[in-house]
């Protein structure tokens, strides 16, 4: 893998403008969806902005400590992921990609005073019934360490027909009956989320994708209103179990139905038994229990 050293973290807002141009068939060129470049990008000497970290903790409902929340490094590294997607050799357009899964391994805590070296690359392009799926892998090292302290794998889907896509006339599998409140118990917490809150998260994280900040932009992608960032949901889940997260942890999230704003979220946190994950987490619509926004697990490495 060949990594290009960038002088600094790229400007995410400027990247979105380039991504919009890249999505246009004539101006953006051809994305063949068949090959994956064997190259990545990296930035050295990144420092945490404490004011930004404090704002992130506040908008996600997390404690502010010297130790970075499991999900916070995503905001530092996401511009590198976008830089990969803007490369002409990247197989699919950046705009319209759907964040399906996210797995974070925290092998040792990252702290406010650490000097962070961040690198990212894409791999594992494969077919999915709903399109083409690939993984963007991000690693963060501290100082001169050879082994990464934090590793993330984001599963991104570009929607299109593939050989795995069911035929248009194929019968759809029956929908399972939604669970009852008696079957799944009471939520651990019910949280409200507003457009203003997600606009604040967009400003803090730098992720101003139109589907999160613009009704017009959201409707262009088929949503009736703006939707919450998946990684805001992932961070908010952590706030429910703070104090119970292992120091060396794997945090796996599978995103489901988008959170269309404004919304209420029922968060179900269940501690595992012997041999099970430390935590199993689910986010549901409290009025429609069959609508699952995300499922997650936290386990000790």
UniProtKB/TrEMBL annotation:
Domain MaoC-like: 191-273
Positions of the UniProt region annotated as Disordered: 161-188
Domain FAS1-like dehydratase stretches: 68-141
Lineage top rank: taxon: Bacteria
InterPro entries hit by this protein: FAS1-like_DH_region (IPR039569), HotDog_dom_sf (IPR029069), MaoC-like_dom (IPR002539)
Pfam families: FAS1_DH_region, MaoC_dehydratas
Family assignment from sequence similarity: Belongs to the enoyl-CoA hydratase/isomerase family.
Listed PANTHER family: (3R)-HYDROXYACYL-ACP DEHYDRATASE SUBUNIT HADB, 3-HYDROXYACYL-THIOESTER DEHYDRATASE HTDX-RELATED
Protein name (Swiss-Prot/TrEMBL): MaoC/PaaZ C-terminal domain-containing protein
Species of the source: Dietzia maris
């Amino acid at each position: 893998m060949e990594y290009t050293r960038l002088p600094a973290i790229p400007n995410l807002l400027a990247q979105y403008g380039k991504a919009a141009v890249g999505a246009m068939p004539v101006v953006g060129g051809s994305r063949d969806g068949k090959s994956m470049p064997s190259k990545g990008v990296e930035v050295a000497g990144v420092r945490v902005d404490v004011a930004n970290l404090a704002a992130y903790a506040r908008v996600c409902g997390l404690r502010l400590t010297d130790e970075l929340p499991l999900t916070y490094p995503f905001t530092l590294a996401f511009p590198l992921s976008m830089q990969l997607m803007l490369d002409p050799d990247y197989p699919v357009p950046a705009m319209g990609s759907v964040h399906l899964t996210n797995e974070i391994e925290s092998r040792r805590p990252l702290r406010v005073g650490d000097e962070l070296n961040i690198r990212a690359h894409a791999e594992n392009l494969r077919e999915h019934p709903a399109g083409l799926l690939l993984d963007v892998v991000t690693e963060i090292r501290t100082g001169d360490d050879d082994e990464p302290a934090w590793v993330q794998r984001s599963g991104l889907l570009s929607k299109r027909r593939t050989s795995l896509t069911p035929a248009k006339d194929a019968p759809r599998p029956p929908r399972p009956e939604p669970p009852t409140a008696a079957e799944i118990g009471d939520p651990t917490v019910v949280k409200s989320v507003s457009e203003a809150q997600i606009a604040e998260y967009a400003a803090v994280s730098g992720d101003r994708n139109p589907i999160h900040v613009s009704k017009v932009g959201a409707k262009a992608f088929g949503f009736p209103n703006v939707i919450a960032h998946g990684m805001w949901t992932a961070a908010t889940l952590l706030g429910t179990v703070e104090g119970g997260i292992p120091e060396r942890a794997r945090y796996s999230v599978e995103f489901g139905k988008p959170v269309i704003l404004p919304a209420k979220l029922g968060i179900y946190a269940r501690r595992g038994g012997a041999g099970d994950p430390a935590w199993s987490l689910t986010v549901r619509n409290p009025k429609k229990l069959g609508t699952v926004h995300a499922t997650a697990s936290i386990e000790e490495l």
